[in-house]
Amino acid sequence: MDILVKYGTFCSGSLPRTGTGLLALLLFGFGARLAGQQAPCLNRTLAVTVTTQDYQPVKDLTAANFSAKLGHEPIKIVSVGLATGARIVIVMDTSGSMVFDDRSKWKTAMAAAEGLFSSAPPGTTFGLLTFAGQVEDRVDFRQGAKAVVEELRKLLDTDWERKTRQMRWTALTDAINEALELLGTPGLGDAIYLVSDGGENASKVKGSRGYARVLSTGLRLFAFMPVGSLIQRGMAPEEFAGPETVGRLAEETGGSIVVYSRGGTVGAPYGWPSNRTILSSARAALQAARTMDQEVTEFYRLELELPKPLGKSKEWRLEATKLMGEKNVHLRVNYPHKLQPCQ
To answer: pTM value?
Structure first.
């Protein structure tokens, strides 16, 4: 028999004892369902990395070593644990400033990409895009590691002078957005690994609009940036701003960058923050890249419980702390700087 018919309208009159218990059970179940529906909007799982001030990864932290706030309200750290198994798209810039200007620059860039691929822990999967004025070649995740290796070898062996004498422009923003398409629905720790000098001069969508999708997806951006030759020639405004834009985008997404300039004088012309390390030797740059690779492929799985639902994207703060709750000034925390509302 339908329980609502049996007990009539249960907002008035008295109920039998058994009806009271059953009603309480129904209301409890209804409330539990509501709580279950609300919980996903408060619970978030993010990939974050922690390094020392000289960028060495720190891998022995627990939930007690983190403190988070949304405005002035504390965010509960539910759990922290190390994780691997990310999907990574290597995005290789094959524009003229990368392949023509300085052969050693191109070899160093290729060594950075190959190093990331060869040192990744089991469970990490790779895709690859190459681009100049447009995306040229792509290897998706279904093609597997062998296809990525073959494409990297082909790039290294290419005689670019013989292959083409045409101007090779740089559609950097378009390539990053194409990498987003290759990744599809992002998973925990998924990342774009850009190898480029950052000079933008050919994308259909330019400026901050071109990078808006990266910030909203939860993907991390890492970059190896051999920028030395760019400061030796005249640049359009978007080329000039490109390296700084990539650096700030990496920071906002919880990624990182390595900047290599043979002259070691990139800071002033590019407007890099004063604390940005510029490496002037290929050997030092590749050593730094190997360290950064550990951030790309191994990270903390951080579970949060927000104090309230978000109506729009919000800035938040995440810090590494000592066990007494004091900020640990000896550690750097890389994390996405904005939390997104539920879709």
So the answer is: 0.84
